Amino acid sequence: MINEEIRAKEVRLVGAEGEQIGITPFREALQMAFDLNLDLVNVAPQAKPPVCRIMDYGKFRYEQQKKEKEARKNQKIVDVKEVWFRANIEENDFQTKLRNVLKFLREGDKVKCSVRFRGREITHASIGQKVLERVLKEAEELCVVERSPKLEGRSMIMILAPKSN
């Protein structure tokens, strides 16, 4: 809230340079802000009495937006990539899919490794477990297990997260 939007009889006032002015009546604080050609901004409305600061509100908003934009730019969005395996996967197919898992982990993404069982393969879930454990063994220097292999329906799922540097 700024200027006339503030609804308080008296406020704790902070000057334009950051100095403590003290508790003053609202109208007096507003007049001081207008005399300096600045705004009266409520920075702590929950306090008793509310804390208001004399500042250039437009410049304050601009700097806040700039900080938020910078924070968003530096933020890394972690995707979850999924790689499907089969219980009876051949060696070359396994190596190809493992290369993808390693590439995703190096890029900083999480990887969801799934073994899909078809038909009566589900009775041999231990084979799928071995496939996922082999993936983990091959990628252990790049990742940590976020979720260990677990059977869900007709799929066994394991989630790997990249190790933080």
Sequence-ordered SSE layout with sheet pairings:
Layout: E1 10-14, E2 20-25, H1 26-35, E3 39-44, E4 51-55, H2 57-74, E5 80-86, H3 91-106, E6 110-116, H4 125-139, E7 143-152, E8 155-162
Parallel strand pairs: 1-4, 5-6
Antiparallel strand pairs: 1-2, 3-4, 6-8, 7-8
Walk me through what this model shows.
It contains 4 helices and 8 strands. The two termini are 43 Å apart. With 165 residues, it is an alpha/beta fold. It is rod-shaped, with a radius of gyration of 30 Å. Strand 3 (39-44) and strand 4 form a beta hairpin. Strands 2-1-4-3 form a 4-stranded mixed beta sheet. A 4-stranded mixed beta sheet has the order 5-6-8-7, with helices on one face. The model has no long low-confidence stretch (mean pLDDT 88). The chain has 2 domains: 3-72, Roll (Ubiquitin-like (UB roll)); 80-162, 2-Layer Sandwich (Translation Initiation Factor IF3). The chain has helices spanning 26-35, 57-74, 91-106, 125-139, and strands spanning 10-14, 20-25, 39-44, 51-55, 80-86, 110-116, 143-152, 155-162. 36% of the residues lie in helices and 33% in strands. The longest helix is centred in the middle third of the chain and has 18 residues, at 57-74.
Key features of this structure:
165 residues, Ubiquitin-like (UB roll), four-stranded mixed β-sheet
CATH class of the largest domain: Alpha Beta
Order of helices and strands: EEHEEHEHEHEE
Q: Indicate the CATH topology of the largest domain.
A: Translation Initiation Factor IF3
Overall number of structural domains: 2
Please state the second-level CATH architecture of the largest domain: 2-Layer Sandwich
- The overall average pLDDT, rounded, is 88
Low-confidence stretches: none
CATH superfamily of the largest domain: Translation initiation factor 3 (IF-3), C-terminal domain
**Widest beta sheet: strand line-up:** 2-1-4-3
Structural class by SSE content: alpha/beta
Cα-atom radius of gyration? 30 Å
